Request: fold
Amino acid sequence: MKIWGDVPKITGIYGNTGATEKLSKSHAVASKKDQLTLSGPARDFSVAMKALRDVPDIRKDKVDAILERINRGEYAVSAKDVAAKITELMMRGF
Reply:
């Protein structure tokens, strides 16, 4: 592509190819270290969450007691009780 005529804005940009000045450091900035500070409620929450992580999901003593009753034939749940619990859960939306 050829551009005919004098276009001062374009020739001005390309015509100024002289030396440029280098930037020098004028002021050094001291860097600070990052620091994390937790509020009191955040610390309490952290302690509570750690305690919950140590609690097992299954209460083995209760499970063992029910298994023992099942094995002895002493644990029986009526169909009516099961249906009532299912209906209750369905009403709550699980």
The radius of gyration is 39 Å. The CA atoms of residues 25 and 31 lie 16 Å apart. Residues 58-94 form one domain. Helices lie at 8-15, 40-54, 60-72, 79-92.
